[in-house]
Structure to design on (401 residues):
């Protein structure tokens, strides 16, 4: 897939038949303005240099790669490595695009940032960016996720953000997006809706991927430096899919590296018990873009479930849909039970407490390792588990000693 990153999406934001921008007419000029501003600034030396400065001196990039020797020895088979986005400032990969989106908003003359959040990592990252650039911040979050991810709610408020509880529907990520978009409709002259993943109307899937590409570019060079070769397999969890596209971008044009996206299988394959969109979904439109999505009997977005609040979304990034259709990325899954097992094992064997989202990738890497003796696996440890420890301890205990 040589030249892939420059070829996709096309000028209208499509990855094959997926993507695009299906938005109210009054928003069309504003999204066009965002796209034009991004295209201009992404070629600006001043903008890129400011972003590089922020990443190095504020975010703490580059983040390292760690070899999970103890976990690898425990499982046998392949050697497992992780890209440590949990060590990025605020504890996840989300700040990579949030600082860039806030800087873009500043250049556009906006004074406020609006967003949704599920696990709270995007909300914390955007609140951090807003504080850094002296902007207002409004974060919409479902009441279910507010209860599960209380530490991140506290962090957002301490950073100065207004947290808007969402009390309708399933009260999770999909409804948070609905609520944030509705609020944005009345503020688009002065605010930027900083979408939190590679989803939404064009140009956001392209922009967020390109802002997250730093993860993959670093990982490519670091893995070569550590091992003198590229990994055989690259693994990342997929809800909307920003952390995965960030890591995949470093390897996607080298087809000797197998790419794996990991969806949340939840508690069963019954609709409403999982959020395995690509595995069980069909083509449709949600939140202004075309993708594979989970639908109920009426063709509406279906209820979803995942132990990880950042993955319980009934759609998925359009680029993931396209890469699935081409076969370049294989999409598998991990259950809640497998995810918890990985959460406990990584904590006990390696001294790393992962986010539940990231634990899906670790769970899949563990299954893959057992089948791949002599090979290497690089997984994206996209976030740390500080936000999840109270929920896990109170609900499931501390695992086996």
């Amino acid at each position: 897939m040589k030249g892939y990153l420059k070829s996709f999406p096309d000028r209208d934001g499509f990855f094959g038949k997926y993507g695009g921008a299906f938005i109210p007419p009054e928003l069309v000029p504003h999204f066009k303005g965002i796209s034009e501003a991004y295209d201009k600034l992404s070629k600006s030396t001043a903008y890129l240099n400011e972003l590089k400065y922020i990443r190095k001196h504020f975010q703490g990039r580059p983040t390292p790669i760690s070899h999970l020797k103890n976990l690898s020895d425990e499982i046998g088979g392949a050697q497992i490595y992780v890209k440590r986005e949990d060590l990025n400032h605020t504890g996840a990969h989300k700040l990579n695009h949030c600082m860039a989106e806030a800087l873009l908003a500043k250049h556009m003359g906006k004074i406020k940032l609006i967003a949704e959040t599920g696990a709270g990592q995007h909300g914390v990252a955007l609140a951090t960016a807003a504080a850094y650039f002296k902007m207002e911040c409004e974060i919409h979050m479902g009441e279910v996720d507010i209860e599960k991810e209380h530490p991140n709610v506290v962090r957002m408020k301490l950073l100065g953000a207004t947290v808007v509880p969402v009390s309708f529907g399933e009260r999770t990520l999909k409804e948070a997006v609905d609520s944030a978009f509705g609020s944005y409709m009345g503020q688009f002259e002065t605010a930027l809706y900083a979408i939190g993943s590679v989803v939404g109307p064009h140009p956001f899937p392209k922009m967020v991927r390109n802002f997250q590409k730093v993860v993959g570019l670093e990982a490519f060079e670091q893995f070569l430096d550590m091992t003198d070769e590229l990994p055989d397999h690259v693994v990342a969890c997929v809800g909307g899919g920003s952390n995965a596209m960030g890591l995949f971008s470093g390897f996607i044009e080298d087809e000797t590296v197998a790419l794996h996206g990991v969806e949340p299988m939840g508690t069963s394959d019954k609709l409403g018990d999982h959020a395995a969109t690509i595995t069980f979904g069909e083509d449709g439109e949600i939140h202004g873009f075309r993708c594979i999505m989970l639908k109920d009997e009426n063709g509406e977005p279906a209820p979803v479930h995942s132990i990880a609040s950042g993955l319980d979304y009934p759609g998925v990034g359009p680029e993931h849909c396209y890469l699935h259709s081409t076969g370049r990325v294989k999409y598998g899954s991990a259950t809640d039970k497998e995810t918890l097992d990985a959460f406990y094992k990584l904590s006990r064997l390696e001294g790393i407490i992962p986010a539940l989202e990231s634990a899906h990738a670790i769970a899949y890497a563990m299954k893959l390792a057992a089948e791949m003796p002599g090979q290497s696996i690089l997984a994206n440890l996209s976030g740390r588990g500080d936000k999840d420890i109270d929920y896990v301890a109170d609900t499931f205990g501390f695992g086996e000693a």
Observations:
- The chain has a mean pLDDT of 97.
- The longest helix spans residues 204-227.
- The two ends are 46 Å apart (CA to CA).
